[in-house]
């Protein structure tokens, strides 16, 4: 039987011994255990006047860039931090092999807010590449630092950064379960939902304002939608039998869910505000784990062919076709936001590993080195994949780049991690 379906279908949920002691604001600390073939040497000069605040800006920017695996952050601490181009010692930076330098200043405002003025400098050309002026409350200094790191990442790689995005995951603390939302670097964790019954399968809306998830608080699996701004909770799928595996349509109007109304797990669609369920998949097997592609088509897992494989169908359930053929076990699809790739879990030699398929060529690449992986989820720039795995007998989070060259793991955890979901860019 499909492993993830068994986790939904049985209320025991033995795979959900989940996370951290979250009575503190401890971050989920990513440690880079692999790096890109060639890293871009950059320097981040200490931002002037940042010591006025408890939260420093410079270390956050450095940590973001280092965690990506694409940058070599060169130590650079001038006696007087430069804030203008004319104050930069280009000869010294050239000797250090630095290609780009970030400089800036943190300025308090009369209304109590803080403005960060930042510049990114091309050392060889001795000219400005980019710049930002950001203003928010002092409690948002980390967020502004992430946005600066995003800008550096985009200007130097050509791809949009994801440091200012968020992730969701599930925490079990004692006998209580918590749906957590945190910054992409794991800081600022907040409990969105708390229950004495299991919570699984979080899924972000396309605009990042809501999360769908499955809760057993009604003593059976029910799909809920939670507003992150108001906290309002709505039961969207509470039909007879099991309700599970929610996935948002690209326009945010519909959820694909898995119901057992017919006696078997099949894929249905339901309006986000609740209403009648419309059946999409029709088979004599188990159809589960739906996920939408950007074009509105639905990928899902089914054992209709005798073993768990991934299939694709139109938004109305038409045109069903098998997608995976290599190996006898392929489950848990997620489609990249750019629509070019699919990540999933493949059983390779008895090890459950994160795989990536190029949807144009159908070529598949195994990305992870671990063997108990599940729940892969794309970053919104389609360049990284976050997933759950096991280490030392407990669950942890890990991430890998789509070329497999950059690998990260979660450290300093006091428990088990499951069910990660990487949020979208906030519109």
Class derived from helix and strand content: mainly beta
Largest sheet, strands/sense/barrel: 5 strands, antiparallel
Low-pLDDT residue intervals, each spanning 5 or more residues? 1-26
Share of helical residues: under 10%
Largest sheet strand order: 1-29-28-27-26
Number of strands: 30
**What is the tally of helical segments?**
4
| Euclidean distance between termini CA atoms | 39 Å
Features:
single chain, 427 residues, mainly beta, five-stranded antiparallel β-sheet, five-stranded mixed β-sheet, 4 helices, 30 strands, 10% helix, globular, disordered N terminus
Description:
The chain is mostly beta strands and 427 residues long. It is 10% helix and 43% strand. It has helices at 3-9, 58-68, 90-95, 141-157, and strands spanning 29-32, 40-44, 71-74, 100-108, 113-122, 127-137, 166-173, 176-183, 190-195, 199-204, 210-215, 222-227, 233-237, 243-248, 254-259, 266-271, 278-279, 287-292, 298-302, 309-313, 321-322, 330-335, 341-348, 351-358, 364-366, 374-378, 384-391, 394-401, 407-411, 418-422. The strands form seven sheets. Strands 1-29-28-27-26 form a five-stranded antiparallel β-sheet, covered by helices on one side. The protein has a five-stranded mixed β-sheet with strand order 3-2-4-5-6, with helices on one face. The chain has a four-stranded antiparallel β-sheet with strand order 9-8-7-30, with no helix packed on it. α2 links the parallel β2 (40-44) and β3 (71-74). α2 packs across α4 (141-157). It is globular, with a radius of gyration of 23 Å. Residues 1-26 have low confidence and may be disordered.
